[in-house]
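[09:14] KT: can someone run the structure on this one? pasting the chain below
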Amino acid sequence: MNDVEKFLAHAVALERDAARRYEDLAASMATDGNAELRAFFARMAHFSRLHLAEAQARAGWRTLPELSADEFEWPDGIPPETAEWAGVDPMMAPTDALALALESERRGHAFYAAIAAISPDAEVRALAGDFAAEEAQHVAELEKLAAAAAR
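[09:31] RB: done, structure tokens below
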């Protein structure tokens, strides 16, 4: 991807989607009665909304394109943090919720990291690198929670 506006349009869509999915997981954990994970997923939704605002702010004076579904350049044709989310269910186990969130964050990280590695545009590489670093932090946090929940 070699266009800053197009990259930011992707980041906005990805982060908006991630926030919604984390809200779904928070609601699922509320149904399960797991207050700790409900709060964690609500916090992750908040972080996704902060990343969304950051992507919008970085657009600054630029007008981001409104891409149709077939204009997005997603791996496998679907947003990285959306894949597998059809499995969210109000009665899912906490370990399943964590596994789902972890895989989603890994895909989000891989998406940003790949762009940071291959984009011919220096600004896109820098932006993607920043977003990849934030996603890496989420992956690390989820890995710790998933490992603790598996015990």
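[09:33] KT: thanks! The CA atoms of residues 112 and 131 lie 6 Å apart.
[09:34] RB: yep, looked fine to me
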